[in-house]
Amino acid sequence: MKLKQDPKCYTDVCINGKWFHHDHCTTTAYMLRGGASCSIELAKMPITENELVELLNQVL
Fold it and tell me: What top-level branch of life does the organism fall under (predicted)?
């Protein structure tokens, strides 16, 4: 699925039982947890949800 190129939009994805949040039009994501969130710098801005998952898997 192509990510909407709108900074007001976001995507949450589950990878290996851990949920990650990505704000569209950025190169960052963070793990959704009850306290402090683990921030991740992505190699590039993802265009599709599959690309987002691939980029997250590269740093996990």
Answer: Bacteria
- For 41-58, the pLDDT digits (tens) are 999 999 999 999 999 999
pLDDT bracket for residue 31 (50, 70, 90):
very high
Q: Say if 4 falls within a structural domain.
A: no
The residue segments making up the domain with residue 53 are 10-58
Is there a contact between 57 and 44 (Cβ–Cβ < 8 Å)? Answer: no
Give the torsion sign (CA, 18, 9, 51, 1): positive
How many residues are given for the chain? 60
